[in-house]
Amino acid sequence: MSIRLENVDFSYGDLVVCHNLSWELPSKGVVCLQGASGCGKTTLLRLLCGLLQPSAGSITGLASGTVSVCFQEDRLLPWRTVLDNVAIPLKGDRLAAAAMLAAVGLGDYLNSLPEALSGGQRRRVALARSLVMPAELLLLDEPFTGLDVDTWQLLVPLILRRAEKCPVILVTHVADEATALGASVIPLTGIPLTGELLPQ
Length: 200
Known about the structure:
The protein is of the alpha/beta class. 30% of the residues lie in helices and 26% in strands. The longest helix is centred in the last third of the chain and has 15 residues, at 149-163. It starts with a strand and ends with a strand. The model has no long low-confidence stretch (mean pLDDT 94).
């Protein structure tokens, strides 16, 4: 069963963000939401992961409700080591967490606390945590913020591997990132978002 928004309405007070919005996600692959700040990209992600609830319409197709998210903020627990942060969605499976951290180039920092890392390293920890979690849907909100080109390009194969198994929704302002991930691009031109969302 595909993941689908049907006739969804959502507002922040008097600000209507979605009205009668429908969108059927692919079963796998990368879809990129592009548009100016304030056009509803992050709101759509929050609706998909259940942080926001539509005032009308429905979101269906997430049988177990499992969604993995890499937010714009790193959201790491400062009192836990890098390894323990990534092991959280794995119910403490430290071996799998360590393997993912090695894959993102942080195998030497397993026992470090987040405050000891650079901003780019913390970003990679957050991305590793989202990638390691088993999920039906992966949401990436500006996942490469603070990373240089060489670093984020090394992470692309990890995301593509996940995209072979489930849909990945990417929010980015950088066209090269969407291109590197082979993403179908859905342009969002402004709110309210209405009708059927379709790729270019």
